[in-house]
Amino acid sequence: MDDDYRATNRANWNERVSVHPDTDYYDVEGFLAGDSSLYPMEREELADVVDDDTTLLHPMCHFGLDTLSWARECEEAVGVDFSPSAVEKARDLATDAGIENATFVEGDVLDLDLDREFDVVFNTFGVVGWLDDLDALAETVADHLRPGGTYYLADVHPFAEPFHDVDADGCQFGDWGFSYFRDDPLHLDADGSYADPDQSFEHTETVQFVHTMGEIVTALCDAGLDVEFLHDHPWADFPMYDRMERDDHGRWWLPDDVPVELPLTFSLRATKG
Ligand SMILES: C[S@@+](CC[C@H](N)C(=O)[O-])C[C@H]1O[C@@H](n2cnc3c(N)ncnc32)[C@H](O)[C@@H]1O
Question: What range does the domain containing 15 cover?
Fold first, then answer.
């Protein structure tokens, strides 16, 4: 895959970073007042491996809200993002929040080499769809975990994607999108953002990728990680379909007139042997 897709995506993310911190989706005000931006699910599923002594790496950290929330709960948190604007904003936010045990590094998760190991690698929401090479992601994870360390991945459930018409303006649940088994990259040109659908951007093109659940799990196993659990959840982290309702924890639920529940999010934990 041509590396140019990353330049296309980076331009889009650089621009989104200028807007996202001011959105309701990202409650920066609440964070600065002491709230955690993490989902209860993330904290619960990692409760037994994160404490005051934990070192945590957060690849694809965006402007650092989750990284900094973890920093409040552990020894040290390091956020990595390939968007220089995201890294700059994350550093500013750390200063504003008075958090000194977090650092932010500009880097690409597909060829990251920080030359050190962490207790936990945390990777959530908006991960696999931006990457063409899950083996490279899994290698990065394995290279940066100490033996016995924990990888946590939560993201959009691949099963939900085919019911998601990414070209529709106001996608109804059940509008067919793309095949679960699609190999070709998605070349999208869409204004707005999950955090602010009405916002207008200059760099609207992105290149995204479809991965099956089997590909995700197999890539981790091939890198020598032992999968501990794979959980399915009936809510999404963003309004992926029209008319979804957001609850107090920032989880988006299908409208009441959809008569079934589907897995919209998965969470997975794996250990380095
Ligand atoms: C959807 S956002 C993550 C959002 C995060 N879960 C949050 O809510 O703050 C995806 C992030 O991944 C970054 N990204 C995309 N591709 C990347 C890559 N190859 N290497 C490093 N960062 C990447 C983008 O710059 C963006 O900040």
Answer: 4-272
Q: Tell me the CATH number at 78.
A: 3.40.50.150
- Band (pLDDT 50/70/90 cuts) for residue 196 is confident
Mutate to test the pocket of ligand 1, among 1, 41, 62 (most ligand atoms within 8 A of CB): 62
Q: Is the pTM of this model over 0.90?
A: yes
Question: Is 273 in contact with 151 (CB distance < 8 Å)?
Answer: no
Residue 184 CA to ligand 1 center (angstroms) comes to 21
Buried b (16+ CB within 10 A) or exposed e, 57-69: bbbbbbbbbbbbb
With a CB cutoff of 8 Å and minimum separation 6, the contacts of 7 are none
Instruction: Kindly state if the Cβ of 126 falls inside 6 Å of ligand 1.
Output: yes
Amino acid at 192: G
Question: Is residue 122 within 8 Å of 56, Cβ to Cβ?
Answer: yes
Interior/surface letters 10-28, b for 16+ CB within 10 angstroms, e for the rest: bbbbbbbbebbbeeebbeb
pLDDT of residue 242: 84
Q: Are 34 and 54 in contact (CB under 8 A)?
A: no
Structural domains counted in the chain: 1
* C-alpha to C-alpha distances, 193 to 12, 120, 164, 190, 273, nearest whole angstrom: 10, 29, 15, 8, 38
Chain position carrying tokens 């299908």: 254
